[in-house]
Design brief:
Blueprint: E1 6-8, E2 11-13, H1 18-25, E3 28-29, H2 32-42, H3 47-50, E4 54-58, H4 60-69, E5 73-79, H5 87-103, E6 107-111, H6 113-119, H7 125-140, E7 149-153, H8 154-169, H9 174-181, H10 189-199, E8 208-214, H11 218-227, E9 237-241, H12 269-279, H13 288-294, H14 302-311, H15 315-327, H16 332-357, H17 361-367, H18 369-376
Parallel strand pairs: 5-6, 5-8, 6-7, 8-9
Antiparallel strand pairs: 1-2, 3-4, 4-9
Length: 389
């Protein structure tokens, strides 16, 4: 009997049954009707929607209603800078950029340097700040609209966040925070306060917030949905993605602490080739002769699954690869070679954009239209914060 899967904000284990997870978490599936609505408004479906990678939601239908009515919405996402980013980290940002491009909305990106400093016992504040900068370059390289995007580092922007965090913190008791975040008696008080800070950007505008994130992050936002209306704001909406499987198989997710499971954005072509050839789990047969006779199984083959998730956006080409692999016309080595080529093309383009991003940091963090407004005026008036005498 297969081991039961586990999905929590701090652990993902086993082969996830996403239909069952929707029922467990109490979310809604992204239906064909909802996809048709999105396609009608945007003119196309992103490959991550078309292929069912983003599969679940909370109140996405209401977000679309708000857009059609002219009320609008905004996007919020983030990154905990504990080290270098891998492909599994960057793909949700690519989808967030697509949403921004199609709906012309603001994007707020929180770099949680405070949380990672509290959460990583061995990391100095200097190290965390370094990774905050490095990760910011990778995010800028995705190509967000600089006048509709505000990237902020918590430690630097805390003065603007704190007044609302005070109001949020008063609404959350320790029992709730402990149940959702897994706090124990040894958890430092910085981490215990952090959930209040994480919720704050969902109130940056008097519109509904949409958070694109992996499904394991959903419990964090249930707290926001419990308290938002009592503070005069909308419950946040969310659109959830499946996990990009690790190279080593379809169970769990990629992990920065296990380099063999992931392709990092800084990996050079030689490293990419080595990792995929050495570690990518195969659905092929043990010998060429058997493979030609029996064919491979793309359903369990990680190289094919990575192509399906993002790296082969052409549906006709993907169908041909699948047919050839199932029939035995395409060998495992050939499938891996194709993925290696696509990954290295992606990383080469990313590295070039990342180099350009070094000149754009100030634009996204301070000087763009949205960034300037967030620094000069802040997200709220003194009246909203109840700070005006």
């Amino acid at each position: 009997m297969a081991e039961e899967f586990i999905v929590t904000p701090w652990e993902v284990r086993g082969r996830v049954d996403y239909d069952k997870l929707i029922k467990v978490f109490g979310t809604q599936p992204i239906t064909r009707e909802l996809l048709n609505r999105i396609e009608g408004l945007t003119g196309e479906l992103h490959v991550l929607l078309r292929r069912g990678v983003f599969f679940s939601h909370r109140d996405l239908d209401l977000v679309l209603d708000d857009y059609v009515s002219g009320r609008g919405f905004f996007l919020y996402t983030g990154r905990g800078p504990s080290g270098p980013m891998h492909i599994g980290h960057i793909i949700p940002f690519i989808f967030t950029k697509w949403l921004q491009d199609k709906f012309k909305v603001n994007v707020y990106i929180m770099i949680t340097d405070d949380e990672k400093y509290w959460d990583e016992p061995g990391m100095s504040l200097k190290e965390v700040r370094k990774w905050a900068y490095e990760n910011t370059l990778d995010i800028i390289a995705v190509g967000f609209d600089p006048d509709r995007t505000f990237i902020f580092h918590d430690i630097e922007y805390i003065g603007k966040l704190y007044p609302m965090a005070v109001k949020v913190a008063k609404k959350i008791n320790f029992n709730t925070a402990r149940a959702v975040f897994g706090f124990t008696g040894s958890t430092n008080i910085g981490l215990i306060f952090y959930p209040a800070l994480q919720i704050v950007p969902t109130f940056f505008e008097r519109k509904r917030c949409l958070i694109p994130a992996a499904i394991d992050q959903d419990p964090y936002w249930r707290i926001q949905r419990d308290i938002a209306e009592s503070l005069g704001y909308y419950k946040t909406a969310a659109i959830h993605s499946k996990f990009m499987p690790p190279l080593t198989g379809l169970e769990g997710k990629m992990s920065s602490s296990k380099p063999e499971t992931a392709i990092f954005l800084h990996d050079d072509p030689k490293t990419v080739r080595f990792k995929i050839m050495r570690y990518a789990f195969s659905g092929g047969q043990p010998t060429v002769e058997l493979h030609r006779k029996l064919g491979g199984n793309p359903d369990i083959d990680v190289s094919f699954q990575w192509l399906k998730i993002y790296f082969e956006p052409d549906d006709a080409k993907l169908r041909k690869i699948e047919e050839d692999y199932r029939s035995g016309r395409m060998l495992t080595g050939e499938l891996k070679e194709y993925l290696i080529e696509r990954i290295n093309e992606f990383l080469e383009e990313h590295r070039a954009r990342r180099e350009e991003a070094k000149k754009l940091v100030n634009l996204y963090m301070y000087d763009g239209e949205l960034a300037r407004r967030m620094w000069k005026e802040g997200p709220w008036s003194l009246e909203e914060l109840e700070l005006k005498p």
